[in-house]
Amino acid sequence: MLTKLHREKIKYLSQYRYLNSEIDRNIKRLSELRERLFCISQPLSDMPKTLSKEDKTANSVARIVDIENEINKDIDELIKLKI
Question: Least C-beta-crowded within 10 Å: which of 4, 37, 67, 70?
Fold first, then answer.
């Protein structure tokens, strides 16, 4: 049977593991967004488009900045847990 101290340790380590997996997931999302943003090839189509390339680029850059901020926040939390 687990003691109260053991349960607290498990809860603490679970927080650490959760933050670590969140950081990994966000880094993967960031990499995918950057790939799409800097992709040179574009499909050829004569269909009208609703967003201009500049709008898509601006939206992608904004999402990249948001994800980078989220990663930095999670890393700060992870460091606090380590301390």
Answer: 4
